Structure formats: C-alpha cells, structure tokens
Amino acid sequence: MSVSGKSVLKRLDWFSVLIYISLVFIGWVNIYSSTFTEDNPSIFNFASLHGKQLFFIGTSAVSIIIILALEANFYERFSSLFYIISIVLLLGLFVFGKTIAGATSWYDLGFFNLQPSEFAKVATALALAKYLSDIQTDIKRQKDQMISILIILIPAFLIIPQPDPGSALVFFALIFVIFREGLPLYYLGIGFMVILIFILTLMFGTIWITIILGLLLALFLLLKKPSFKVPIIPVALIYVVIILFSLSVNFVFNSVFEQRHRDRFSLWLRLEKDPKKLEEIRKTIGYNTYQSEKAIESGGKYGKGFLEGTRTKGDFVPEQHTDYIFSTVGEEWGFIGTATVVILFTALLLRLVYLSERQKNAFSRMYGYGVISILFVHYFINIGMVTGVLPTIGIPLPFFSYGGSGLLFFTALLFIFLKLDANRLNELT
Amino acid sequence: MRKILLSSIILLVGITFIGRLSYLQIFSFSPNQILEDPAIKAVYDYPERGYIYDRNGELLVANQPAYDVMVIPREVKPLDTLEFCNLLGIDKDRFVSQLKKARVYSPRLPSVLVPQLSKEDYGRLQEKMRRFEGFYIQKRSLRYYDTNSGANVLGYISEVNEWDLERNPSYAAGELKGTTGIEKEYETILRGRKGVKWIQKDRFNRDIGPYKDGALDTLPEQGKQITVTIDKILQEYGEKLMIGKHGGIVALEPASGEILALISGPSYDPALLVGRERSKNYSKLHYDTISKPTFDRSILASQSPGSPFKTLNALVALQEGAITPETTIHCYNGFYVGKRKRGCHCGGGTRNLNSGIYLSCNAYFAGAFRKIYDQFPTSAEGMDVWEKHIKSFGLGTFLGYDLPTGRPGRIPNKEYYNRIYGENRWSSSTIISNSIGQGEVEVTPIQLANMTAAIANRGHYFTPHVLKKIGADDISIPEFTEAKHTTIDKKYFEPVVQGMAEVYKKGTARWLQIEGIEIAGKTGTVENFTRINGVRTQLTDNSVFVAFAPVNNPKIAIAVYIENGYFGSRYAGHIASLMIEKYLKGEITRVDLEKRMLEKTLEEEYAKPYSGQPFKINERVW
C-alpha cells in the first residue's frame, strides 16, 4: 500500500491535477461572490452556500485519496456492479425520491442530498468501457453496437421522467466512446445531418431547403465530369427523404412542441424579429439567457472586480451559483477571466485525450474517452447556454457549479481515470 | 481520423467560445455600463437654481417650493374619490384619466397625478394625505418672481425637450432649463450641477445599498446667484408706462454699457409662466398675435429709426468735412428731389446744424447727406465711407449683448443698392430718405439706445449687457468692459450734442424739460406702413425719442420707440422724459404728465388695421 501509494503520486498526471485544482478554486471564488451578502462574509460559515461548497471540496479531497489508494483493477472489476447499483438507485427515485425545483432527482440523506444521476454517469462510463473492452465484444457487429448503445440509453431513459432532460442528454455523449472504438462514422454523419436540417428548416423553411438543395444538385450535375455516373435513384431518394424530414420538422415544431420549447428555439436561432415579442420572450423564457448574456457583456475586458459585480449582487441572473456560475466569471473577471476558464477546460480535455490515447489497456482508454465525453458535453452545453449560443439546457459546469453530488462525482470520474493512467505501466508487468 | 476527431471538436468549441466571449465582452461592451445597468440606479440631487438680483441688490427672481401629488397605482386602496378630488381641486373625470395614465406608465413606479400645487393647497392637503394610500406629495422647486415686470428680459424656465436631451447630456428628461432671456443666457451659472447617488438595486428593484459605497457619487453644486444691471424700479416704472402701448424702451448707462431697463410693451407678469396655469397662460400669450407680449420689441423690433438718425448723419458730414456747424441750408418747407418736393415740418427758413437738429429740419439733413456724397467721385465710394461711419455706432450688427435673441437691423451698403437699382444707377438723391432715418435703414430700440450712449460718451460706447456680478464678483469680460470707438472724432460731437440739448430748450421737445436736469435728445416721427388685404396702407406715425442726461457726464441714455404714437415728442418723448426723471431724481415732479402717460393707451390705434373699415391716421388726440 505504501509503496503503491508512493508510485501513484509519482506517476500521477500532475498537469491534469493542477487544472482540476485551478477550476475548483476559481469555481469556489465565484460561488462565494454570487452568494455573498454583506452581513455574511465569513468563508467558513457552513450555513452559507459557499461554506457548504467548501465542505464538498473537502469531501472531494478525501474521495481523491481513497480513489488513488484503491487497486486500479478494482474499478474494472466492479464496474458492472456499480452500473447495476446506479440503475437501482435511479429506479428507487420513483419511490423514495426527493423533489427539488420540480425534479425528483435526489435522495435525502439528511445532511446531504444525493443525486444518483451523477453517480450513474461514472458507473455508465465504467460499464461501457468494460463492455467494449471485453475480448468477446466486436463493435463491427450490429448486436454489440446495440448492446453498447443500450448501456447508455437505460440510465438516460430513467432520468428523463424525473424530469431532467439535461442530465439525460449527457449520456448520449458517451456515443463518442463507441465511435472511437469503431462505430461506423455515418451514424455520426446522419446525426449531424438531422440536426442541421432541423435547424435550417426552422430558420429558412422547407421551401427554401427544397429549392437550394435542388439548385445544388443541378449545379453538381452540370459541373461533374461526364465520365462520372450518378446513381440517380439513391440520390433522388435522399432528396425526397430530406424534404419529408424537413416537413416533419415543421409538424413536430408546431404541433408536438409546447410553446415554451418553441420560444427557446426562436430565441436561440434569433427567429423572432418582432421587438415587442422579443421583449416578451426576454422577460419570460429567455430571461435567464438574456440576463446572463448581459452580465457577461457588462464585464468588458477586465471585469468589474471581485465582489463588485452589480448584476451578480442584485441577483439578476437566476441560478447564478449553479448552472449560471460562468456569468459571474464574466461580470467580475471580464474577458480575461472567461477566456482563462475556456482555455483551462480546453487544455484539460486535450490533455485527457492525450492520456487516453497513450493507454495500453483498452479499458483505461475507453473509460478515458468516457470521461472526456461527459466532461466535454457538460462544458459545451453549459457555457454555450450561458453565453447564448445554445438553447437553455440546465446542466452544471463541471468542478465549477455549486452542488455536492456534482463536484464529488466529477472528481471521482476524473481521478478514477488518473489512477488508471498512473497505473498503466503496471499493466505490462 | 477517429483519434483526432474529438480533439478537433474540443479545439473548435474552445475557439467558438472565445469568439463568442470576445464578441460579448469586447465588441458589444458599452462604456456607459453604469447608466445601462439595471442593477444601478442614479438618484439625482438637484441644486437650487441661482437667484437673480437687480443692480441695487434688490431681489428679482428666487425659488419657491411647489408640491406635486404623486401616485403609485398598485398601492392605491379604495378611497373617497369625491373628497379627494375636492381637496385636489380637480374633477373626477380628470382624476380617473390621470390615474389610468399613471397605471399605463407603470403600476409600481410613481407618476405625477396633479403637478405643482400651491403652498396653500399643500397646507390643506398635507394633513389629510395619509388617509389616501398610494398617494404622496413630492416637493420641487419653481421660480418665484419678486417683481411683476421684466418677463422678457428675465426669461422663463421650462422642461427640457427631446432636442436638448440629444444635444446636452447633462440634462435628463423632466428637468427644467432656462428657455429665454437671462435664464437661458446664464443657464450654466444659475443651474449649478446636479449631484448623483448611485444605488445598487436587486432584481425586484429594491435598494440594497450604495454602489461601490458611494465612491462615484457626487455632491450637487449650487447654482450661483447673479446680479444683473437692470434697475428694478426703473424697469417696473417703464412697464407701467407702456401699458396699452406697443414698443420698446431701452435705457443704458453710457459710462459702462449696462442695461438699466429693457422694456417691451406690452409685457406680462412673469409669474404667469410658473405653476399649474402655466400652459394655459403660455398659449394665451403666444397666440395673442396683435400685441405679441412674448415678442421682445426692445431687441427684436427692427424698424426705421426716423429723425434720431439725423444726428449720425450730422456727425458723418462733420467728420468728412462736408459741412461745418455754420454751414446753412435753406428749407422751403421741404426740399426737392429732382422735381418732387419732400415735406418738412420745421417751419421753413435758413437752418444751420444747431437749428437743423432742434427743429428736426428734413431739408437741412437731406442737404448735408448730399454734401457727404458730393465729396466722392461716385456714390458707391460715398456709400462705403458713410456705411463705415454708421456701422461704427453698432448699427447693422447684433451688437453682441448678452441676451439670447436679437436682430441686426439694416444699414444698407452699395451692394444693396446695386442689387436694387443696378451699378452706378443710383445717387445720393435716390437714397435720400436715409438722411432722415426713413428709407432702407432699420434699427432696433437697443441699437438706438446704444447709438445715443455713443453720442453721450462723445465717440465711444460699451457693448450693452445685463450681467453685473456672478456671485459676489464683478464681471471682467473684456467684451463688456472695453470701450468700442466710433470713427467720428471727439470734437465733432459737441455741436451735435448742443443741438440735441436745444431740442429740450427751444426745439421739438421743449414741453418736456425737467426741472434741474439738462437733457439732450432727439425726436422722431416715423412714417410706417402695413399691408391690409394686400394693400399697402399707411398707419399713424411711430413715435420715437432718444435722449441722454445730464448733458455733461451722462448717467442715462435712453431710446423709446412707440408704435403708432404719432409725434416723437408725444408718447416717446413723454415716456423718455419720465424715465429720465425717475432714474435721476427717484420721483416724478410732473404729475399731470405722468398721469396722462399712465392713462392714455393706443389700443384704439392698434385696432384700426384690424377693423376692416377705412380709418384715419395721425389723428390729434390731445
């Protein structure tokens, strides 16, 4: 134990650890600022949110020690068990769940509310890695493709009815892992096309898509080499399918979506041109985004300074210490602050890609990709939402947002991988 | 490919975010953050507007509190509307509509329900106010006038409009600013600077304390009081004399150019434009197109000067050597321009400079005017010289006094006549009317007074001005404290002044002599015309008078211009004489004269052109 502990510290990727510590620290400073009141300035007041977060950081530190101390193959060995436990916990929510802010996502443990969906993210990443790295699994086989996708979908579908579509969405990101291991890329291509046509239909309408696509096809037929034979029937079929899909988008958008969904999209894609209605949307569904964008904008290049954010102090941005914590960075630390955070995340993610790629052990590599996918999708959706480039989907910023379960399991997610990485040389012997 | 896909996406997303953030924080960032920030509210602290005192330290303009009844619609509880309306002095319909307006504006922010209650109304209302929830009284400062005259020269203040807001960032909507007169001219001094407190708000618009602990707050800077050159007593007296007459009186102190009185008749009580009745009163004044009380005739009415202008022609003739005081010219009860005879009221006979002035002989000055032009090979050259001399008295220019409005009058030049008659197609005879102050020359009363002051000073004048002191400091504005010299040598003034003094002794104003004061003056009786249904119609002559006194070491120079007052000695001469006596002696000895001036009005005369009937002009009334 003592020998392995020493070697773990020596082989630990300190670059990632340093970024982790920076993010947690910056996050806490901003939580302190956004929950700060004049009459409650003490850092160690555990009744305050920033005090609680400090406690969670301590807890996470302890969990890091435990994670690093455990045998590396413990995680691989027990990954199926973790997965089953997480599914049970998610099912249990339907009976014992505690409802906070309309979502039945928590277990009340008295001193602490446990959010099993956070645990499920770690467990699913482990389980997926385990299944894919199994010698008997061949990702080229359709059956195995389906099973691996099912591993992702089961927890996701258990989380959707909580309702917490944001967290459910995170699981889909794990598809990246399957891609990395050989799921044909046209899955990704089709997915991308579907999203693109969806957006283009909303922005320009089916008629324009039909016309433009038709013109492009005509242009292609005119300019192509005479020798090139065009497979007429499949091309025509794709064309028709696209138009039909585009029509169905209109139907879904207008008849299946509720008004609030439509408003989110029209806000995101700037579809609403009528200034009166825009004002209305800003006050209702778009309030959060509008306020957070304005708070970030008002920070300028250098920000207003620590504890000087007027919009933060005035509580203009809802949920600022959780999902919208990044707007505090924007207001108080300006572009310097926001760019730093983006760079830190980018650096961490790229570093993890590098670490994953150097794993000799397939399980470690796939789990690494699972970690990257989960962290990336959180970071992407959260900052995208807060800065107004993506529609509102409520998920936290890893290591940053206030929340015990979140911090604890993001920490576990990362450090299990770092433990595996530190152990990679032992695998050979 | 699969290996770099994820890295590429991560990088791409990072770059997108940096791009988006730089767009938000660098390109969209507006430096006026503090004003646009919904979390920061500016609370302004308005300084009191500076008082205005007259030259003797008498208060002219001060401030008075006014009380606006404010309402916060959503805090209004059911109330006894009838009683409340009675207290406010408004009817129920108005109350309901005002309340509705306020609610439309904002249910939770205060709006004005009834503006500017008087002190008395406020007293009655104050005790009962707390029974009416959602209403409260807010104090604000309005102008208070300790005089009922000087409305035009003092000016008024009014709410800033869109145009002001756009041009001047120091104004905010709803603030008051000087709009005319002294209030406008010295706005920045009187106004002071408002203080601002920045308050941090939360999203419910509640105050949560000072922003940055008040580090950016500023204290209001009090408006400075100013002392103006107006003599309150003289101003009030002059306006009293002007009741029922249209015209202007301007009195100057020749030694300094200070404006002692700037009177436009008819005038109005400046208090009319303060308080609840303001807009009603303003409309009434503004739409009175016959007497035009808001039109400051003393500085805006550009008209023929008439005979007082002869004094300048005399000076030019002397300066150019065209005449000497001894030169005589014969008057045939008029003079000839070609074959046409132009009349003269002087009685006929041989005139020299002295009698020419005191009898106001047209023939003499027509002759003198011709002699000026005869000195030069062409009329155009003569015109240049004449124009230069005349303009050196401040005519034909805006003069540069410190009031926000004015007219330059008109001193024609050769280009002017070339345009009308063609080059070399006019001569001194063509423009002979200018010799007696008719024709193309036009002046405003203040220019007439300034010209008189220049004669009183024997060759120089100080730009007329109304500002005497800012706070306790005398002004030291070179524009007002440095003498402007005319182009006429000092020695030529004495014979002209002599003639003007004789006007009071044996001339056209001999009835108006004041016991113990030697006055120099000049009458003017100005033909004038109007158009009635497109027909050029002559009206009763304008009565004009300029004077200064005492002849040696003059204390006051005055110009009086009374529209359709007939002879110069009649209305204008009387008023000038009374004004001089009032100023120099402090009281009036000739009570009958004063009584006549106070009682006589020219309303009948002014009604004639509007009667639609044929009418007589220049009727003898007394």
What does this structure look like?
The complex is a heterodimer of chains A (429) and B (622). Chain A is an all-alpha fold and 429 residues long. Chain A has helices spanning 2-11, 14-35, 49-69, 73-77, 79-96, 116-133, 142-159, 165-172, 175-180, 185-204, 206-223, 232-256, 259-268, 275-283, 287-299, 310-313, 325-357, 362-386, 404-422, 424-428; strands at residues 98-100, 103-108, 113-114. In chain A, α2 (14-35) runs antiparallel to α3, α3 (49-69) packs parallel to α19 and α10 packs across α12 (232-256). Chain A is globular, with a radius of gyration of 24 Å. With 622 residues, chain B is α+β, with helices and mostly antiparallel strands. Chain B folds into 2 domains: 42-71 and 150-221, Penicillin-binding protein 2a (Domain 2); 232-610, Beta-lactamase (3-Layer(aba) Sandwich). Chain B is 35% helix and 21% strand. In chain B, the strands form 7 sheets. In chain B, strands 2, 3, 4, 5, 10, 18 and 19 form a 7-stranded mixed beta sheet that branches. In chain B, strands 12-11-23-22-21 form a 5-stranded antiparallel beta sheet. In chain B, strands 1-8-9 form a 3-stranded antiparallel beta sheet. In chain B, α10 (232-241) runs antiparallel to α21 and α13 (308-319) runs parallel beside α15. The longest helix of chain B has 26 residues, at 2-27. Chain B is elongated and about 115 Å long. Chains A and B meet through α9, α15, α16, α17 and α18 of A and α1 of B.
